[in-house]
Amino acid sequence: MEYIExxxxxxxxxxxxxxxxxxxxxxxxxxxGIVLPGGHVDKEESFVEAIIREIKEExxxxxxxxKLVGIKQFQEKGHRYITFLFKTNEFEGNLKSSxxxxxxxxxxxxxxxxxxxxDFIDLLSVFEDDDKQEFMYVEAGESFIKRIL
Length: 149
Prior knowledge:
The protein starts with 6 loop residues before the first strand and ends with a strand. The radius of gyration is 15 Å and the shape is globular. Strand 1 and strand 2 (20-26) form a beta hairpin. 25% of the residues are buried. It has 149 residues and is mainly beta. The strands form 2 sheets. Strands 1, 2, 3, 4, 6, 7, 9, 10 and 11 form a 9-stranded mixed sheet that branches. Helix content is 15%, strand content 46%. It has helices spanning 47-59, 120-128, and strands spanning 7-17, 20-26, 33-35, 38-40, 62-63, 67-76, 79-88, 91-92, 101-107, 134-140, 143-148.
């Protein structure tokens, strides 16, 4: 059995302020629509430092004390894609969009009115439910099965 595999490391963060959450209207075609902000972990960068940097780059906000709440993973093109999921309500700064897409505050109750990426609501459950900690896609022939553990 092989224990070493190629993987791509990324982060996402649920930044929230009472009943509002920070979302991004992502422009890239590979995952276009309303998402939570985040991005890739640079080589030798800590996961916490990566999410702090990514939120700053994509939203202009400085976040503090992001808490790791779970992971998302799936296999893609022969490697594993792993996303570390953080959340925080500690931030400061003036919101500003980036080349990645427009960022905005949205009431949690209004999410269904937006053009959300396919798994947004299911993934959000991992951020909000302490009994859930992993979101994954498992290959099943020509398709994938979504599992939340």
